[in-house]
Amino acid sequence: MRSHVPSYELVVARDLPHALSMLTEGFRPIAGGTDVMVLFEAGKLAHKKWMSIRGLPELRTIDVTPDHITFGALTTYTDVRRSAIIAAEFPLMIEAAALTGGIATQNRGTIGGNIVNASPAADTPPALLVYDAEVELTSPRGSRWVPYTQFHKGYKVMDLASDELLTRIRLPRKFASWTHFYRKVGTRRAQAISKVCFAGVRRGDQMRVALGSVGPAPIFLENSDISAISPIDDVRSTARYRMQVAKNLMEEFLHASA
Ligand SMILES: Cc1cc2nc3c(=O)[nH]c(=O)nc-3n(C[C@H](O)[C@H](O)[C@H](O)COP(=O)(O)OP(=O)(O)OC[C@H]3O[C@@H](n4cnc5c(N)ncnc54)[C@H](O)[C@@H]3O)c2cc1C
User: Residue 1: its pLDDT value, please?
Assistant: First the structure.
């Protein structure tokens, strides 16, 4: 049991402009807190200025236009699982959400938090990569859309400035007729961190594949060549096992989508 509870400052953002102004004062966002609070509890939260954005309804919407489905960064796994249009057109998002933690984590954890926490083992990034997602980054200077394939630059390194908030994620509505394939391999079927996570979509010769837990960040491939992956040995698995599982999943995907 810890005898010392670390002290930190917490503000609650009133609205998006308030949140953006607090970012410029050195506050960092807490969305669902399911990653941040684990660090807090472990005494590993070095940063002292935090801002809750959880109560901003403008960041928890799912909008549908003819070309895109756009959802707010605060969209939870449960919100995703309840969305009929995401289920119909982006089923890998549903599978990733359903395999993330348990119900309590799904009710609280957000897709934006999963992206910015930037764990190489996170479960929604591979699905977002194959669906050609774009992320909207907003600061007091304005907003910009970045292709998600270019967002992660290395281990926990992202194209995200300290005064930027991830505000929305949009998916182009062009994959409904493709074959969709998702596998999470962990120690157990549920409530386990991925040893390898695989997402793939295919239509004829066109193929998009992404993997998690096999490199410093989620990895996107435009073909079936997995030589770009660089798994490591760690507490959850070995590099050799991960490489073999990635090969097996690629074969399974190619077979299932042929
Ligand atoms: C019991 C348990 C089981 C879990 N199981 C899984 C699992 O199976 N698969 C998996 O992938 N993850 C899992 N997680 C991790 C976690 O639930 C997810 O990563 C979740 O999506 C994080 O979202 P959050 O809103 O809680 O993020 P928070 O903890 O609030 O924030 C995470 C990080 O993102 C930043 N951030 C959050 N929102 C924004 C934003 N809009 N703009 C900029 N920065 C932002 C925060 O500053 C922080 O650095 C698990 C966690 C727990 C506690």
Answer: 52
| CB distance 212 to ligand 1 below 6 Å | no
Domain residues for the domain of 47 are: 9-52
pTM of the model: 0.96
For residue 111, give every residue at least 6 positions away whose Cβ sits within 8 Å of its Cβ, in sequence order, or none. Answer: 71, 73, 75, 76, 77, 80, 124, 128, 169
Let me know whether 35 and 97 are in one domain: no
Residues 20 and 123 in one domain: no
Asked whether the beta carbons of 229 and 241 are under 8 A apart, the reply is no
Which residues are within 8 A (CB) of 155 and not within 5 positions of it... i.e. 6 or more apart?
A: 118, 120, 216, 217
> pLDDT tens-digit profile of 215-232?
999 999 988 898 888 888
pLDDT score of 190: 66
Rg of the chain in Å (alpha carbons)? 18
Q: Ligand 1 atom closest to Cα of 184?
A: 8
User: Whose CA is closest to atom 23 on ligand 1?
Assistant: 113
Ligand 1 center from residue 114 Cα (angstroms): 4
Report which protein residue has its CA nearest ligand 1's atom 25: 32
Domain membership of residue 141 (yes or no) is yes
Q: How far apart are the CA of 257 and the centre of ligand 1, in A?
A: 31
* pLDDT tens-place string over residues 3-47: 456 688 999 999 999 999 999 999 999 999 999 999 888 888 889
Residue 178: which of 219, 198, 206 has the closest Cα?
206
Atom of ligand 1 nearest to the CA of 29: 47
Q: How far is the CA of 205 from the centre of ligand 1 (A)?
A: 35
Percent of the chain with pLDDT over 70: 97
Token pair of 99 as six digits: 């395999």
Query: Are residues 153 and 73 both part of a single domain?
Result: yes
